[in-house]
């Protein structure tokens, strides 16, 4: 999750850009500043899926195929990882929504 946040790209969506300080000023502020214009919600509703579809429509993280290898006259079955003809899953809806990784909030439990 570390590099997927908006700070990695130089953006800080939860503060105002009118201060002119950029991400340095946004990191030093203690209170949440509401941006002007369209408000940014602190929740993430979708994420990029980490699984793939194969030619048969099966969904998994990795696919393997069994190959027969003949070595010294003996037949052995080996698993070979499939890298071709895989389709990414796309975006997945999160239920329930998660907090954005760059949302400046402290979670506290008594």
Automatic annotation (TrEMBL):
Its gene name is TUSC2
Entries under InterPro entries matching the protein: FUS1
Output the GO biological process annotations, alphabetical, semicolon-separated.
cell maturation; inflammatory response; natural killer cell differentiation; negative regulation of interleukin-17 production; neutrophil-mediated killing of gram-negative bacterium; phagocytosis; positive regulation of interleukin-10 production; regulation of mitochondrial membrane potential
Name by which UniProt lists this protein: Tumor suppressor 2, mitochondrial calcium regulator
Q: What is one term from the GO cellular component aspect held by the record?
A: mitochondrion
Q: Name one Pfam family in it.
A: TUSC2
The source's domain of life comes to: Eukaryota
Q: Which organism is it from?
A: Ictidomys tridecemlineatus (Thirteen-lined ground squirrel)
Instruction: Extract the ranges annotated as region (Disordered).
Output: 1-35
């Amino acid at each position: 999750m570390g590099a997927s946040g908006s700070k990695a790209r130089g953006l800080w969506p939860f503060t105002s850009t009118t201060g002119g300080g950029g991400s340095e000023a946004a990191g030093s502020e203690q209170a949440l500043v509401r941006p002007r214009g369209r408000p940014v919600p602190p929740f993430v509703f979708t994420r990029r899926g980490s699984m793939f579809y194969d030619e048969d429509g099966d969904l998994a993280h990795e696919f393997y195929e069994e190959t027969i290898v003949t070595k010294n006259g003996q037949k052995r079955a080996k698993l070979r990882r499939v890298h071709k003809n895989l389709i990414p899953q796309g975006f997945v809806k999160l239920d329930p929504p998660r907090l954005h990784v760059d949302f400046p909030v402290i979670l506290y439990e008594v």
